[in-house]
Amino acid sequence: MDNEPQFEGEEMKLPEDDSAETSEDTGNKKNSSALIIFLFVLLGIILAGMIYWYNTAFEAVPADTEITRPALENNNEPETDTATAQTDGFSAMSTSDEITALEADLESTNLEDLDAELLQIEAELVAE
């Protein structure tokens, strides 16, 4: 029942022909080191790209690009009289929060020309 090999008194020897195994080990080491170098270079390129993207995406907008409204004398908009009349009508609305007062304010609001005015504004923006 004792199937274990007996090595007592025998001398241990290394294999004589190990040249094939040695060349495979060095080949694997060369391949794995080349792969690691490639992965580090790839990681460096990705990190550099992310840093470049972050710097360009979150650039500060120059402060001198503020949009200012023209003064009343320089205002050449043709809708000034209409806009003034309509805004005066809005101030005549009730301050009550009763349903009947809200319905009356809603019915007095003129929304008939809203589409035409929006088309006119869009045409002016496209013309610029």
Can you describe this structure in just a few lines?
This protein has 128 residues and is mainly alpha-helical.
Q: Briefly note the structural class of the backbone.
A: mainly alpha
Quaternary assembly: single chain
Give average pLDDT, whole number: 76
Q: How many DSSP H or I helices?
A: 4
Classify the helix fraction into a percent range.
55-70%
Outline, from the CA principal axes? elongated
Distance between the termini: 101 Å
Regions with little confidence, pLDDT below 50 for 5+ residues:
none
Radius of gyration: 42 Å
Query: Mind summarizing the main beta sheet?
Result: none
Structural features, described:
The mean pLDDT is 76. This protein starts with 18 loop residues before the first helix and ends with a helix. Helices cover 59% and strands 0% of the residues. The chain has helices spanning 19-57, 80-91, 99-108, 114-127. By secondary structure, it is an all-alpha fold.
Salient structural properties:
mainly alpha, elongated, 59% helix, 128 residues
Question: Layout of SSEs?
Answer:
Blueprint: H1 19-57, H2 80-91, H3 99-108, H4 114-127
